[in-house]
Design a protein that fits this description.
Length: 154
């Protein structure tokens, strides 16, 4: 093999190594972040639910299949914002923002997601990165609703 073609080969190898490094440092899209909330938030949220929401909603309405298909795989912001801007139906927006956050944490807990020491953040941008992963629903945040998995029993 001539010195020329050897140099050619090592150039190619170098290029491959560089491109490989660039790709691997750029490609991974930010992975959906695990949702967090504290026991304190959920406990306060449970009290809000009992005093405000229970008038119209049973707890099981917040964990059933319709609920999971509607909200599973989406940023928790969507659920928070829906509740904050439309609930209670008799007085949308009438609770404090922190109460809306707490009641959202409570709904997350009702759906079997474990509490941790990191609170559900009071920050819209952060809430948009936290995907609500619910039983039986594939997290696929950007899929149109019609294309998302529906449980076979429906
Ligand atoms: C006065 C009755 C009433 C109260 C109180 C009330 N809701 Fe609702 N809620 C409704 C009605 C009616 C709907 C469905 C109609 C609609 O789509 O707006 C609904 C819909 C919802 C939904 C959407 C359900 C889904 O699967 O898409 C959520 C979540 C929700 N409520 C949460 C709450 C929470 C949390 C509270 C307490 C802070 C609350 N609601 C208080 C009447 C109420």
């Amino acid at each position: 093999m001539s010195a020329m073609s050897l140099r050619g080969i090592s150039l190619v190898a170098l290029l491959v190594a560089c491109v490989g490094r660039t790709l691997s440092s750029q490609t991974p899209a930010p992975a959906p972040t695990t949702i967090t909330y504290t026991d304190e938030q959920a406990t306060r949220g449970g009290a809000v639910f009992s005093s405000v929401c229970l008038e119209c909603h049973a707890r099981k309405d917040m964990t059933n299949e319709d609920f999971r298909v509607a909200w599973g795989g989406r940023p928790v912001f969507d659920l928070f914002e829906r509740i904050r801007t439309t609930m209670p139906e008799s007085g949308p927006g009438s609770l404090r923002r922190s109460e809306y956050l707490d009641v959202t944490a409570y709904l997350v807990q009702l759906n079997g997601i474990a509490a941790s020491t990191t609170p559900l953040p009071d920050d819209d941008a952060a809430l948009k990165t936290l995907v609500l992963t619910l039983r039986g629903v594939i997290p696929w945040v950007h899929a149109p609703r019609s294309a998302r998995l529906r449980p076979a029993s429906r």
